[in-house]
Amino acid sequence: MLEKGQATDGSFSKQLSPAVTALCTSALLEHGVPQADPKIQKSLAFLETQIRSDGGIYGEGSNLRNYETSVSLMCFNRVNGDGNYDETIQKAIAFLKGLQWDESEGYDLNSTFYGGQGYGTHKRPDASNTSYFLDALKAVAEDPQSEAFQKAATFMSRCQNLSTPHNTAEWVGKASVDDEGGFIYTAVGEGESKAGETPDGGLRSYASMTYAGLKSLLYSGVDQNDIRVQAAKDWIGRHYDLNSNPGMGQQGLFYYYHIFAKTLAATGDPFVLTEDQQKKNWQADLTRRLSELQRNDGSWTNPADRWFEGDPNLVTAYAMLALSYCDPNPLAKADHE
């Protein structure tokens, strides 16, 4: 990645978003490239040019302000051992909290907008952006009981295909048994799922948002025994698959691999129990699958180019970050279990 993917100004695929530079830099740092490496320093210098006066870290005129700020903040946090980025991180957190839909914008607890996070354009919140926001809060050790976390947990609970006191939306009652416990993209309005609708008007759950939802609940301090957590784990067990992003096929596949690994690491479970009671070593399975998909030049890419996954920099960053949650030698470990 350092040899082929980086531009002379230190960026990676900046035509897509400065977030790609943040993800690539984080991936390289996670895999042992030292912060002092001149190319890492160049990428950090590029990201510094994206710091805005409002505290956000995003491209000029960006429509992805929450996403870009969240992943850039996490990158700066990784290299903040000397405190040089303290002010940048604090201002970025304040900026992100200012984007969260809540009472300050006229939305109370009864609104399906409440607690969610969108791209930053204030169109509407969604589960993916809310997940990135909570990743940023988690990275800076925000208290899980803070208002920001708890408001976000309210929003994410309403994105779950599960009838509970946390979610009484009409579309939940139309969910199929197979969709129960999974998550959709957003609960706003009549709800939206990138996986589409069921024949009777329900909304289909899909894997990448289900993992995002489960991780968000865990980060927000929801107990492992909570019905929402258990139902999400049950859905994951029914749809355990590393050949596709269940519900979406090949679309968003590497985004899914990253969030799959990050979420399962958050559960603390070394295995996923499938519907037929098989114990799947997710670290070994993920490492094996990514090894199969890696190209001869060391990169990864996705022929299904939705959400920029045709870009090798972005996709390689996703793959490397996913692997950072795996045991260094899970295949050998699995042979002895």
What does it look like?
The protein is an all-alpha fold and 337 residues long. The protein has a domain at 1-99. The protein is 43% helix and 2% strand. The protein has helices spanning 18-30, 38-48, 65-78, 86-99, 127-139, 147-157, 207-219, 227-238, 253-267, 282-293, 312-323, 330-335; strands spanning 271-273, 279-281. It has a two-stranded antiparallel sheet with strand order 1-2. Strand 1 (271-273) and strand 2 form a beta hairpin. The longest helix has 15 residues, at 253-267. The radius of gyration is 19 Å and the shape is globular. The chain starts with 17 loop residues before the first helix and ends with a helix. The model is unreliable at 330-337 (pLDDT under 50).
Task: Throw out a few tags for this protein.
337 residues, 12 helices, disordered C terminus, mainly alpha, globular, two-stranded antiparallel sheet, 2 strands, 43% helix
